[in-house]
Specification:
408 residues, alpha/beta, seven-stranded mixed sheet, five-stranded parallel sheet, globular
Length: 408
């Protein structure tokens, strides 16, 4: 049985940021990672992926951006290297390839059963990330024909069977994958539901410059009229492209991508779509217009132009054959859920999610970090996790001071 004051579960940007904060405070801790540092960036994303946020926005605690391309977008490989360098620089105590199979409360803390032996801790932080278990609404058995994979399994156009591709979901992953496939000469059908369209650059700056300057990224639940709606907001239709070009429904249509509504179901060798495409396009256009109006108001100088609206898609059937050979692959860019069956049951809500207020659960000594809207709008962003890590580190210090701790 091994012991530590604090066990951090997950060695992505959230876990490493917290490790830095605890190390600076002299708190004994260990980071347990079921794969390698930044494992999801390594193994659950496509080869050409770049970060959606510009380099200047991706600093972690104690490590401001020092490179020569602040407005560029780091490749996933370069970002993983930066995480490894960050861990080395701050001597993060990490044990990799250790899966935590259970974490239960005890009389004086927590007992963790892992693939590398058992641990006890006075405090535990779940930093496993918002993107845990891929969600595919329809089973491969129901589809019976085309290759059916989640976006986290997609790597490149050349690794798919020849033929057309149906991409389901039009948030950041879906539009980027559709763009790459179309540029590779594939026929692409994109199933579009609720989405958020924004220009990559606006008024001479990256859109994130304005989101940060106006304080939108730092908004907390108390600042919002409808926090639950904000939590459900789809990821932005953006891509970290060196040319800083937009990737949205308009640019995809120009590449020949066919648009359809949301997937309704499958039957008789066909996949059916809802007739709601126009509604979702109009809602995204209205939301974009409101934000750009906010920027105008913020600067005090209205702009005389707006992005070109998404062209009305040509009429297409609300059904697509899966048996005539025109579609060989389906990629589900349909998001993720989380699975906490291994965690202390008292920490979970009725929906099975980890219940917390600002990362503090109802179970003393158990915390969360890196989840969407944990404390503010950018809590699951690379550049937003640092402030949350500092706050959670302070909560841990108070908890340990009340219950006794040893120095690192």
């Amino acid at each position: 049985m091994r012991r530590s004051d604090v066990v951090i579960i997950g060695a992505g940007q959230a876990g490493l940021a917290l490790s830095h904060c605890l190390g600076q405070a002299g708190i004994d801790h260990i980071v347990l990672e079921r794969g390698r540092i930044g494992e999801r960036w390594r193994s659950q994303s496509w080869r050409s992926l770049r970060l959606l946020t510009p380099n200047w926005l991706n600093a972690l605690p104690g490590s401001p951006y020092k490179g020569g391309d602040p407005d560029g977008f780091m490749s996933k490989g370069a970002f993983v290297e930066s995480l490894e360098g960050y861990a080395r620089e701050w001597h993060a105590p990490i044990e990799t390839n250790i899966e935590v199979m259970s974490c239960k409360r005890t009389s004086d803390g927590f007992a963790l059963h892992t693939g590398g032996g058992d641990w006890t801790a006075r405090a535990v932080v779940v930093a496993t990330g918002h993107c845990d278990r891929p969600v595919i609404p329809l089973s491969a058995e129901a589809l019976r024909g085309p290759l059916s994979i989640h976006a986290s399994q997609y790597r490149s156009p050349g690794e798919l069977p020849g033929g057309g591709v149906l991409v389901v979901g039009a948030s950041s992953s879906g539009v980027q994958i559709a763009d790459e496939l179309a540029r590779a000469g594939r026929r692409v059908v994109l199933s579009v539901g609720k989405h958020t369209r924004l220009p990559r650059t606006w008024r001479g700056h990256d859109i994130f410059f304005w989101l940060c300057e106006m304080g939108l990224m730092a908004q907390r639940e108390a600042d919002l009229a409808n926090p639950e709606s904000a939590r459900r907001q789809p990821s932005l239709q953006l891509a970290g492209r060196p040319d800083r070009a937009d990737v949205d429904l308009a640019t995809l249509q120009a590449l020949g991508v066919e648009l359809a509504g949301r997937v309704r179901g499958v039957g008789d060798g066909e996949i059916a779509f809802d007739g709601d495409l126009g509604k979702h396009i109009a809602a995204a256009e209205a939301k974009q217009a409101r934000l750009l109006d906010q920027i105008d108001h913020f600067t005090g100088t209205p702009t005389p132009y707006r992005p070109e609206p998404v062209p009305a898609p040509s009429a297409r059937s609300e059904r697509l054959s899966l048996t005539d050979g025109s579609i060989s692959s389906i990629i589900w860019a349909t998001g993720y859920t989380r699975s906490f069956g291994w965690l202390e049951p008292l920490a979970l809500g009725a929906d099975g999610e980890l219940a917390h207020q600002g990362g503090v659960t109802s179970v003393p000594g158990l915390y969360a970090l890196g989840f969407r809207f944990l404390r503010k709008r950018d809590s699951n962003f690379i550049g937003g996790v640092g402030a949350d890590a500092e706050a959670i580190a302070a909560e841990i210090c108070r908890h340990l001071d009340r219950n006794g701790r040893k120095a690192a």
